[in-house]
Amino acid sequence: MPGFLYKRVLLKLSGEALMNSQGYGIDPKVMQSIAEQIAELRDDGIEIAIVMGGGNIFRGVMESRKGMDRTTADYIGMLATIMNSLALQDALEKHGAFTRVQTAIEMREIAEPYIRRRAVRHLEKGRVVIFAAGTGNPYFSTDTAASLRALEINAEAILKATKVDGVYDADPKLNPDAKKFSELRYIDVLNKGLKVMDATSISLCMDNDLPIIVFNLAQKGNIKRVLMGEKIGTIVREKAQ
Hints:
39% of the residues lie in helices and 18% in strands. It is of the alpha/beta class. Helix 7 runs antiparallel to helix 8.
């Protein structure tokens, strides 16, 4: 695969990215655009696994702050990620990409249970694997699930798709003078409290030297640009290169 930096990657998709500007649920145009880009990369020979968020439907942390039991809220959030995963599976298969959804919470009627060796074999066969229900445990975010699954399947990088074009020292929507970082070390992300991924997921990546690339999903073609090594977004790794 000439031109690609990585052969196997994990793409972290937030639920918020799926709803676009409509405020809730899934925007079909956004879903189709994401599916088209992923299917194209799969055709190019890239092995892609995906971890889905569920914030477009339900956010466990926010509901627990309003008084809901945290464990219950987190489990509801996991179910939201499964709904998003099935929707993405449908969109991908309409673009000719063979997929498998694996869930950390068993529901065999609609998806496979998560089994690491089976997931790796699916990737080797050219299937897109979608990991749903986070880690299956409350108090762990889908960011942590992304880091964990990426390490388990021996992914070469995590692609963190967001609604902004990288990591800033402040919210660029609120502060026009916010500075964008082109590259960061893991420890700097932790020390500065930057909103890349949560501390547990960053620590996992730091301990295992797994790079994270944060980029804007809204611009079509950006997933491929990241894999081709274009300098877009922000890369988080141990040492500058």
